[in-house]
Amino acid sequence: MRQIEAALSAFELVEHGKVRAYLRRGDAAWLREAGVLVPETLAGRDALGRGRGARVALGGRQCFVKRYFRGGLLGRALGDRYVSAARFGRDLAAGEVVRRSGVPSPAVLALVIETESLLCRAWLVSEFVDGMATLGAALGSRAGRARRRLLRDAGRAIRRMHDAGVAHPDLTLGNVAVDGAGTVMLLDFDRCTLAPWAARRRHNLFRLHRSARKAGLWDGAGCAERRDVAAFLCGYRREGDAVRAAACAFAFYRAWERAHALFWTRP
Fold first, then answer.
1. If the chain, 267 residues long, is cut into consecutive pieces of 10 residues, what is the mean pLDDT of each piece?
2. What is the pLDDT of residue 218?
């Protein structure tokens, strides 16, 4: 709870009619002038599709605006409307905790929440990073030492996030990015939780590994996959037996995958 309060202290709460916004201190003045308190100015309701964002010019600065949108069956019924706004504050706090832990990530400038009777909508405004590519695309264009260095950097960034107590439920190659300078950044802290439990961290690693396999990052040769995983774990490790524990977790996951393919995969 103290972590959340400390993270939200970096933002100024502003209320304007049915709109409640968290504006980053130091940027609140120009954000107001840019019209962030009027949700229609945030690229328009129709310009931002489900779970997507858009590059928008606000106050002469390039920003990235994300519109919150429900998934699954509730998404079909409610669309971008939510019953509670508590989730948005947790996402904002988790992202700020990660940034304060030293993990590079685009700074969130504003969280805008619009209330409509018993429901609400939300938009997230963050700084736009030029020249950014997903980790999957960056690995596809690198080989040898450059590829292993990138994987080690990704391991370090994720380890810092975990050490800060944040669990990322959607840790995929698409949510790990590389900027033009080659710096690994973590993105999209939607539904992130401040959970120190080891099980949540292991699930994050499993999710990332599965994402890499689905993306066809390896050509089926086990040695290439083992080299990449070893490079990632080299960056993820810390003093003690963390590497061995993580390696055992990956080995368990691979065994589970083989069992799943044997008994449940249809021909």
1. 78 93 94 90 56 80 88 72 88 92 93 91 92 90 89 93 90 92 92 76 85 78 77 79 54 55 47
2. 74
Q: What DSSP letter does each residue of 50-99 carry, written as one string?
A: TT-EEEEEETTEEEEEEE----HHHHHHHTT-BS-SHHHHHHHHHHHHHH
- 177 sits in the region (left: phi over 0; alpha: psi -120 to 50; else beta) called beta
Which residue's entry shows tokens 């996959």? 225
Count other Cβ atoms within 10 Å, centred on residue 215.
17
Q: According to the model, what pLDDT value does residue 267 have?
A: 41
H or E element at residue 144:
helix 144-163
- The two tokens of residue 76 are 């079909």
DSSP state of 175: G
Residue listed under structure tokens 């992130």: 192
Position 40 scores a pLDDT of: 81
Residue 6: which region, alpha, beta or left (left: phi > 0; alpha: psi -120 to 50)?
Answer: alpha
Cα-trace Rg, the chain: 20
H/E stretch holding 57: strand 53-58
104 φ, ψ (degrees, to nearest 5): -65, 130
CA distance 218 to 216: 5
- Contact criterion met (CB below 8 Å) for 63 and 48: no
DSSP code at position 107: P
- For residue 111, give the 3-state DSSP assignment: strand
